[in-house]
Specification:
By secondary structure, the protein is mostly helical. 69% of the residues lie in helices and 10% in strands. Strands 1-2 form a two-stranded antiparallel sheet. The chain is globular, with a radius of gyration of 19 Å. Residues 11-140 form the HTH marR-type domain.
């Protein structure tokens, strides 16, 4: 009887598989598309609502300077807007614009359609059930990385 995989083996396999999926998703990007950091910032604003650039940088675990560049690009494209914090005039709050919500939804829809086609063509009904059962676990893993 084969021994169950160790936590180290599971972690290494998951890390490698997630890295592969991430690389492949990046390869799907067309010129002019949102970068992964831009998309992450928009998704954070969409889920969490308006917040400061410093808070976004902290959540995304990048430097405030890098987040400033990302938000500047998104603002120049009309996807986010910067307003003064009504509680502290020294701070700015970033929020999603209607155009930002629209581009985010369009990108999600396109990626979901692409994933759906692959799942339909390459996975059996049993495999799809297994993937569905693993989704909460993958989400929890992502929240703790």
């Amino acid at each position: 009887m084969a021994e169950p995989p160790t936590i180290q083996h599971i972690a290494a396999a998951l890390f490698g598989d997630i890295a592969l999926i991430t690389r492949r998703v990046r390869q799907l990007q067309a010129p002019g598309d949102l970068t992964l950091p831009e998309r992450a910032a928009l998704e954070r604003l969409d889920r969490g609502g308006p917040t400061s650039a410093a808070d976004l940088a902290r959540i995304e675990q990048i430097s405030p300077q890098a987040m400033g560049v990302i938000l500047g690009t998104l603002q120049s494209r009309g996807f986010v807007q910067r307003t003064r914090d009504p509680r502290d005039a020294r701070r700015h709050i970033m929020s999603l614009t209607a155009a930002g919500s629209e581009i985010l939804q369009h990108k999600r829809d396109a990626r979901v359609r692409h994933f759906s086609e692959i799942l339909r063509a390459q996975f059996s009904a049993d495999e799809l059930q297994t993937l569905a059962a693993a989704l909460p676990l993958l989400e929890r893993l992502g929240e703790h990385i």
